[in-house]
Design goal:
binds adenosine-5-diphosphoribose; 8 strands
């Protein structure tokens, strides 16, 4: 059982070096804490988290959107602006640099709907909860049955924008509570954790499944699991090591020393 106060980095660095020795050797699963130091609020942090201030069912569910589309649309519009203003932090950059130094070793899997991993160089990041910068129609486009569907970009201005032909509203391209995850991304994430030697779990409370289950799955497949989080999470019992620190502090210290030669 890992020590709750955390392990020294020296115990985990060799695991990273070993993981460098094989294709797909290292997987990283990230949550909102990964982007906290970029100024993007998390969900469940006591005072600052979204869910400390808003009812998730009113803002992050289809029912909530249908009940008050303008309110939900404007909340996501505010969050989008926050994402556009944000910059990748030292943690994102350490993962981007690592991928450049060790091609084919790292798989990044994220619950985050921002694009900071991609902006830091991890273009093939697996997105489990969608993309806040993408819109899609709430209902399937009726034209789609007969031919090409209407493009979201054709929507008429509004809160939310709507199709000028059928009134179909746009909604954010994120996964809401009660919705299924994108199958291709989830299948690829499962394959990645099944084949990795080390899974780093960074900045997630582990409160939301099936994403949280990837730690259990990695462990079942013989991988070492290390959690990076300043606080306790709901999946700490799945980890061999807990690193009590932030993403921007710990990831550079853990990854920047690895070199292709020693892989
Ligand atoms: N570095 C690392 N971890 C951090 C940092 C930081 N700088 N700041 C906060 N944390 C940790 C918190 O201690 C907490 O455990 O990040 C975690 C954030 O947890 P949540 O807010 O629950 O976010 P997440 O786990 O990503 O939520 C999962 O829930 O609301 C849905 O779809 C949403 O993807 C989200 C999912």
């Amino acid at each position: 059982m890992p020590t709750p106060e955390g392990a020294p980095l020296e115990l985990v660095r060799p695991l990273v070096q070993q993981a460098c020795g094989s294709a797909g050797g290292l997987c990283v699963l990230t949550g909102a804490g990964m982007s906290a130091e970029s100024g993007i609020p998390t969900f469940r942090d006591a005072l600052t988290g979204h869910w400390a201030r808003f009812d998730p069912m009113q803002l992050a569910s289809e029912e909530g959107f249908r009940a008050d589309p303008a309110r939900v649309w404007n909340w996501y519009a505010e969050r989008r602006n926050g994402v556009r203003r944000a910059e990748p932090n030292a943690g994102h950059r350490a993962l981007g640099d690592f991928a450049a130094r060790h091609p084919g070793v790292l798989t990044v899997i994220t619950q985050n709907v921002d694009d900071l991993h991609q902006r830091a160089g991890n273009l093939d990041t697996l997105r489990l909860h969608g993309d806040i910068l993408q819109d899609r129609w709430l209902e399937p486009c009726p034209r789609g049955a007969r031919g090409p569907a209407c493009e979201p970009g054709w929507a008429l201005e509004g809160e939310p924008p709507r199709c000028g032909e059928c009134g179909n509203p746009l909604r954010p391209g994120v996964v809401w509570f009660g919705e299924s995850l994108p199958l291709a991304a989830m299948n690829a994430a499962e394959r990645a954790v099944d084949g990795c030697r080390l899974l780093l779990v960074v900045g997630t409370s582990g409160a939301v499944w099936p994403a949280a289950g990837l730690a259990h799955r990695a462990r079942r497949h013989g991988a070492q699991v290390v959690i990076i989080n300043p606080e306790a999470s709901e999946i700490d019992d799945q980890a061999q090591y807990l690193l009590r620190g932030t993403a921007a502090q710990v990831l550079p210290a853990l990854l920047d020393t690895t070199s292709p030669e020693n892989g």
